[in-house]
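Entry 14. Ran structure prediction on the chain below.
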Amino acid sequence: MNAFEQIAAHFFEAQGYWTRVGLKIDLDKAQKRSVGNPSMPRPEIDLVAFKPGKNELLIVECKSYLDSHGVRVESFEGEESVHKDRFKLFNLEPYRQLVTDSLVKQLSEEGLLFSDSPTIRYVVVAGKIKTGHETRLREIFEKNGWQLITPAALAEGLRKFAKRGYEDDLATMIVKILERNTVS
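Output, structure tokens:
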């Protein structure tokens, strides 16, 4: 679990989701073979968020990229590139379906879902987006029915989280300090 995943979890918790960070998915050899990689390690989902009232399950990829170029269009379209490997759930349909089905089964067996058929949404939380790429990324995500949480949306959601009562949590405290000491 990294700090950015924890921050993203707070973002979704402020919207009424329960969250799990760094959830490993159990797959057997036959399942791994079905996607052409019998020796792959267990897939790990950065963040899973569930909203019981809506029976909505979010499968979330968290990319801070704070000191890099940011999330880029090439990660989701165009020529094959190393950037596409970072977003397998979005770029490899058989892999996405296998991981999704296994996740739903796993959470159902743990008693964490109301039904075996929650509404599934795929989400990327971006700490930074490459300059000039946000508009096209939004178009790609909308076309595919995915959700893109931009840095601005993340900041706004964290501000809402910080309005809650006191919590002994690093991310909450940092946002509270920044919000209360912003010079206008």
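The chain has a mean pLDDT of 87. Will compare against last week's run tomorrow.
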